[in-house]
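Dig into this one:

. . .
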Amino acid sequence: MSISDLGREANNYVFSSTVSFQNWIHVSNTLRYEAKVSLNENDLERAYLLYLRYADLVLNKLPTHPSFATNKRSYNQALKLLPAIIEIAEEVKTKLNVVYAERAKIEVQKPVPPPVPEPKPVQQELPQLDLGTSFGGALDSLKKRQAAPRTAQSFAFSYPSLSTTEPEGLRNVLFPRGLEAKFLAAAAPNTKRNLETCGILCGRLRNRVFVITDLVIPFQESTQNTCTTLREEVLFDYVDSRDLFILGWIHTHPSQTCFMSSVDLHTHSSYQIMLPEAIAAVCAPSHEFSFAIYRLTDPPGAEIIKNCRQTSFHPHDERDLYCRAQPGHVRITDDAFTFCDLRTKVV
């Protein structure tokens, strides 16, 4: 890794105008916060990358957003922080240059290992494969076995398609065991009326692990099949004032099963664009299979949904658009969490 590598990686993210301007302002705040956490943990490369990404987002990306002209006030607040961010980034860069110089010196001083003689060829015990009388036939069969693709078992709803594959490289998200029950209790009045309810999963970053610490119920408008957040500025005030990350969302299917509808996929796309580890939890209290945690596959689901311009409910014939979150990504814990229903507060 080098300074130039970090610069290229800092610019390697998806900026989508389908995500609201206020959401991107929140992302800028979380970039600053995560960079600060990384710096405190002496992860200089991560801190430098995030500070550069903040600068790129504020200087180059936000002014291209369709809602930029009507959000100058919040943009100017982000812009005012930029000189201090750049100053910190330069300090981190200086420290990184020292680290890289030390690494290079160590590499130069390493003794060159003597050449290793090539081992004598050992005849492979191919007959145990029982694939024919000739070694040629056995070798061909062995090559075919080694080359055969290993595919995970996949299950698909008729619409949209669900995959069980999961990409590597995602940081852990710790999900409190009692959160589902607490959310269902808050959603009960709507559930009785066959109306959906949604909540926002917020948390902190600890040693490169996301911990869900807050379940927030935002102002919202509900129907039998949809739930739309309202007055998002109140939600962002709550989140940003506590230095929280938005780690995903949770919602009910009062009468339907656990799955992600096309509307759910498009809703979750915004969360996952902002944070690749973001999750979507679905509660279906009237069915035996009553709870699941999902995410868009990446690839192909994240890119397909990001580029889809259809609205409301619509079919997606593509396969493997989303998947169940795997244990390597989401872990259930017995941690405590804070519950806040913004609808009951005087704001």
Notes: The radius of gyration is 25 Å. The first strand starts at residue 162 and ends at 163. The chain has two domains: 3-109, 162-344.
